[in-house]
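Protein of interest.
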Amino acid sequence: MPNHRSRSFALCMVSAASLVAACGVALALPSDEVGVGSGSAQQPVVVELFQSQGCSSCPPANAYLNAIADRPDVLALSFAVTYWDRLGWKDTFGSPRFTARQQDYAAAGRGQVATPEIIVNGSHAVVGADKPAFDAAIAKAGAPRGGPAIMVDGTSVRIGAGAAGKAATVWLVRYDPKSRDVPIRAGENGGRTLPHRDIVRELAKLGDWSGSSTSFPLPPARERGLSTAILVQRGAGGPIIAARKL
């Protein structure tokens, strides 16, 4: 673990290790087809931040993600993990599903289970509080490559045909694009109010893709006002090969 990480990271790793053991309505869009790399807004760089309201090292990383949330060429996603919940403050957006996603990345060799961490395109892990590394990873990544076209018509999503290979998972992600200011009343950030953007509220597996054109219905959102994205990812913790904001 880098020397510049604070005591927060050490506590995080201890808590994470113990948990490893235990372990809006979709936008109505006209039918269209978008190929890989055909446009930055249609094939964005996927930036996943794993953070917690209880982590004193996380506010700078949150600010960095907030600053890029409106970029059309980036899909910024903030995942609130749960392994900080035992240390004084329970994250208001946390989900074990998000913790499991970070653990999958760690098992696949994408860094450690610690906060704050960003994963770019499912392939590159960076300390989220290191702004030069944060910016460089996004600038270097480019759009996800090697995946199929993602087509939408408002009620379903179709994953186009492509080269056969390791089966990929098709993920539905719903996130809150609004800025949410959350007062923190305990823990390492007690007394602060933390702004959040693009907080993930739903992460659901739609199915698998193995090269043939496949369609999936889009389930209704559990909350109003959420934005929707589709990810195509090679296995648990694998690279993201296609992405689209709906």
Q: What stands out?
A: The first helix runs from residue 7 to 22. The two ends are 37 Å apart (CA to CA). The helical segments are 7-22, 58-68, 96-107, 131-141.
